[in-house]
Amino acid sequence: MSLTVHEVRNAIRAATGRFEREFEASFTKEELQAICEALGTSVDEAGRPSTARMRRQIRAQVGIAESRETADGSTFRKAELQAIADGVGASSEP
Length: 94
Description:
The protein has helices spanning 5-15, 29-38, 51-61, 78-88. By secondary structure, it is mainly α. Helix 1 (5-15) runs parallel beside helix 4 and helix 2 (29-38) runs parallel beside helix 3 (51-61).
């Protein structure tokens, strides 16, 4: 049986040094920044970058999109979360 979206998000949170959440919740800005750092990438923006920009950068970094410019800035789907989990070294298997 595969993991749920919530379980994959929590695995990513744990792998990036963040707290797991008891309830279903998308990533916060701080969690997205931690994912970017774990992937060894930075978002070229002064201050706090937007969540959409960080999502695009993450998609490009793990190979979901060819580049940040062509990447989607919306919330992640399950298959994308599994690719991100692999990228940060989180276990995405039960």
